């Protein structure tokens, strides 16, 4: 058991390094005047940055000996994956649409999942050099700013970098959503909570940064009533769990599970 803990600890450091290297690969392409892009079969965009980051991240994570699920990999069928007690779940470039818009709100997501539950997550925001990471078992999450060369200048889990969820308030609730367009389910949810609070504020952000907003106390709740995949949520889920938040399936009223037969998530709610 102690050997496994040591191996997982080393694996987490490798994951952090992989997220940063993936971010560097993305920024190299982001700074070009133009880059290759196409539309995948599921109608989502794919750029050369997605592919470059995926290659770099896989090269690092394969060192851990832990199997990898990635948005840009050819993933194994469930009859093989279902025997995995531990796996990585990776989105090498979350927020490809934000990347194409060049608004900086895109991330690298890497999560370690054990028996279907995310236990460690790292989200790197290469445009701002913000590194979010959380260890569910240690019940601690942090936000570290890397230097201009994308290097860590301090130890991981430095107490100064610790983040925490917000304290509940009656006068205000901040809901992660979109300022410009919301679906009816989200509008209905916001309407349902208005009677419990004096003010409802909408906080907008792209990619997995939505999870980070709630984890660091800059928002209070994140309703997601639109399709997502496991690689969109696993890292943010771990970071939120590490600060004491829940990521609840609207289908089962339980925490979202991972390494399912289908990678598609049900609608969910991030809350206290």
3D structure, described in words:
By secondary structure, the protein is an alpha+beta fold. It folds into two domains: 2-161, Fructose-1,6-Bisphosphatase, Chain A, domain 1 (2-Layer Sandwich); 172-271, D-Maltodextrin-Binding Protein, domain 2 (3-Layer(aba) Sandwich). Helices cover 31% and strands 25% of the residues. The chain is built from seven helices and 13 strands. The chain has helices at 2-30, 48-61, 78-81, 96-101, 184-194, 209-215, 230-242, and strands at 37-39, 45-47, 68-70, 86-94, 107-114, 117-125, 130-135, 140-145, 172-176, 199-203, 222-224, 246-249, 268-271. Strand 1 (37-39) and strand 2 form a beta hairpin. Helix 1 packs antiparallel against helix 2 (48-61) and helix 6 runs parallel beside helix 7. The longest helix is centred in the first third of the chain and has 29 residues, at 2-30. It is globular and about 50 Å long.
Please give the structural blueprint:
Elements: H1 2-30, E1 37-39, E2 45-47, H2 48-61, E3 68-70, H3 78-81, E4 86-94, H4 96-101, E5 107-114, E6 117-125, E7 130-135, E8 140-145, E9 172-176, H5 184-194, E10 199-203, H6 209-215, E11 222-224, H7 230-242, E12 246-249, E13 268-271
Helix pairs in contact: 1-2, 6-7
Summary tags:
alpha+beta, 272 residues, Fructose-1,6-Bisphosphatase, Chain A, domain 1, globular, 7 helices, 25% strand, six-stranded mixed beta sheet, 13 strands
């Amino acid at each position: 058991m102690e050997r496994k803990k040591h191996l997982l600890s080393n694996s987490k450091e490798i994951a952090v390094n992989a997220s940063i290297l993936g971010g560097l690969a993305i920024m190299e392409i982001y700074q070009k005047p133009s880059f290759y892009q196409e539309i995948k079969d599921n109608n989502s965009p794919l750029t050369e940055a997605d592919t470059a980051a995926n290659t770099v991240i896989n090269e690092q994570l394969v060192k851990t000996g832990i199997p990898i699920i990635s948005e840009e990999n050819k993933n194994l069928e469930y009859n093989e994956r279902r025997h995995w007690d531990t796996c990585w779940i990776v989105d090498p470039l979350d927020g490809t649409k934000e990347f194409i818009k060049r608004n900086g709100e895109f991330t690298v997501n890497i999560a370690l999942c054990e028996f279907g539950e995310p236990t460690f997550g790292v989200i790197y925001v290469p445009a701002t050099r913000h590194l979010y990471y959380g260890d569910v078992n240690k019940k601690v999450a942090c936000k570290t700013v890397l230097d201009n060369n994308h290097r860590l200048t301090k130890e991981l889990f430095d107490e100064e970098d610790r983040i925490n969820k917000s304290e509940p308030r009656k006068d205000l609730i901040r809901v992660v959503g979109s300022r410009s367009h919301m679906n009816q389910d989200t509008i209905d949810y916001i309407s349902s909570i208005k009677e419990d609070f004096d003010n409802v504020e909408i906080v907008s952000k792209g990619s997995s940064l939505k999870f980070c907003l709630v984890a660091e106390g800059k928002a209070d709740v994140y309703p997601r009533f639109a399709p997502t995949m496991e690689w969109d949520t696993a890292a943010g889920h771990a970071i939120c769990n590490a600060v004491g938040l829940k990521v609840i399936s609207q289908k089962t009223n339980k925490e979202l599970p991972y390494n399912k037969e289908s990678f598609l998530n049900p609608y969910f709610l991030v809350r206290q």
